[in-house]
Sequence to fold (367 residues):
Amino acid sequence: MMERLDVGLGDRSYPIWVGDGIMHRLGEALVEVEFPRRVAVVTNPTVSGFYREPVLAALESAGFQATVIEIPDGEQYKTLQTLELIYDALIRDGFDRYSGLLALGGGVVGDITGFAAATYLRGVPFVQVPTTLLSQVDSSVGGKTAVNHPLGKNMIGAFYQPRHVHIDVATLRTLPRREFAAGMAEVIKYGVIRDRDFFCWLGEQKDQLLDLVPDTLVQAVKRSCQIKANVVEIDEKESSLRAILNYGHTFGHAVETLAGYGVVCHGEAVAIGMVIAAELSTQLGFATEKDVAAIRTLITAFGLSATPPAHSLDDYLAAMGRDKKVKDGMLRFVLNHGIGDCSVHDIRSPESLFARILSQFPGIQVK
Fold:
């Protein structure tokens, strides 16, 4: 089975294919979008072991000439140094403006390949072939590309849309359970901020999702991508509405930064950030304790933690203060209004609010 949707951005619109067992149709999809015939496939050793040969076969059968560039595996390698490795390979092998890049892997591969495409020779086309749930429902769609800086996640990047997103949920069968759970955090996020019915459906379909039932996975991924596409079509570069997609991310990025990149998965950090955001929403009167309990229950049902690591309040505030969403020195938080709606709020006195919230968790110093 295969589902198709489109991200409508005028002459930069692109299709998203979502299906089970559709990797062999990758070449067909690239022909449809008139992708350059010379392709650099950027991946990592782990993903390469599973999908290098099927992807190369799909490309070559459709008349594409493909070269593989392997980069190290892990969030800690999402750096300018790794980006330079990609540039080195492209220049050494003579890739020109009539070439394209293909990101085969999770969010790290997708983000860094997209940024390489945005900047190599001032921009060449690229395609996303995400192989993790997190990248399928989040980072592969919408055109955010970046690398990390030691002082902040995704601080160096560009908005640059792909030509095509090719999502084969069959890749999730080779995904570690921890990585699958991390991806479910972003899926749950879409229900909290935009679609209460979807949030409830996720609870009803929990067992099917955990058992990787193909039809259920396709529907979950498709709905997540559709919600994100609808938002991106209205606000591509996050000047207003798109900021709601950062629900759980302000505190989540602080968790990632303080732990050290790669120690806590992005989705795991977002899950914790969503619980903190829901608590903050309750403090400010936008949600109820029942809403917080429902969010916490669904998060933990998929094996995710709802408890922040034991860093101090001061450390959390400092890390959040370096977040990209800070405006004029004021913390900006996406807060859920019940379940199924949200908006962005400026937090004027974060110290007292977060001291009250974090004091309920063991090991966190709030004084």
Observations:
- The mean pLDDT is 95.
